[in-house]
Amino acid sequence: MSKRRRVWNQTKYESYITAGRGQGEGQKYQPWIVIQDFSSKGMSSRIYSYKTNRVHHFLSRNELSFFYLLEWSDNVLDIREQYPLLDMELAMELALKASIRYPRDSNSGFPYVLTCDFMISTVNGYKARTIKNSSELSKKRTLEKLEIERRYWDALGIDWKIVTEHEIDYQKAKHIEWLYTSSILPVHLTEPEYRASIIDWVKATSTQQAAAWFDERYEFPAGSGLLLIKHLMWRKEIKCETDYNNEYNQRMVRF
What we know:
Blueprint: H1 10-19, E1 45-49, E2 54-58, H2 61-72, E3 76-84, H3 88-97, E4 115-122, E5 125-131, H4 140-155, E6 159-163, H5 170-180, H6 192-204, H7 207-218, H8 224-234, H9 247-250
Parallel strand pairs: 5-6
Antiparallel strand pairs: 1-2, 3-4, 4-5
């Protein structure tokens, strides 16, 4: 859902629409909310996505962790964060039918545009996902806003779910974040010979032994072999922990 900003009225709304917020796909998409819109309350971050080729805006650590899981998934084609429920007429109509007070700015009285944390394009169609801490789901007003959102996406025929901390594999997200730093390989490590030899060594020994062998064999600075291995894991040319199935991963939200 959207967070309140200092000024919200029709003029502000029209400026967002004119600027293209909440519109476009892939590299051209602009989130409805960016972290500069308000003073940070908790962790917020911006990070470049190699899947969408643009910078993403996240308002919590949970959103960032969920993003890494999406970035890693081969089934995910596009990620649009802070995605607006732009058809306010529909959203307000659904709220009225449910006898729910639609959120408005206390000063201007202008209705807010609700947002979904993630609109995900997948090989199986669109998936809308809202990130919430489970502790928030006991709050009446939070549940009312979620009900508006649920009805909105249902009316549009889009699969929608709430994702809490219980559905986010933080260990996997942290591992993906660790690999993420090696997604771009330095030119001096791009020789095909290096890739082939280190893959063979990883298969025959271990990551640590292969990395040490590589640095010594090719007389590169310490850490070069590990960087190459991480890069090949990121490209999924070397199997890594995030690919192995386990009971916990089977319970994660799938796409």
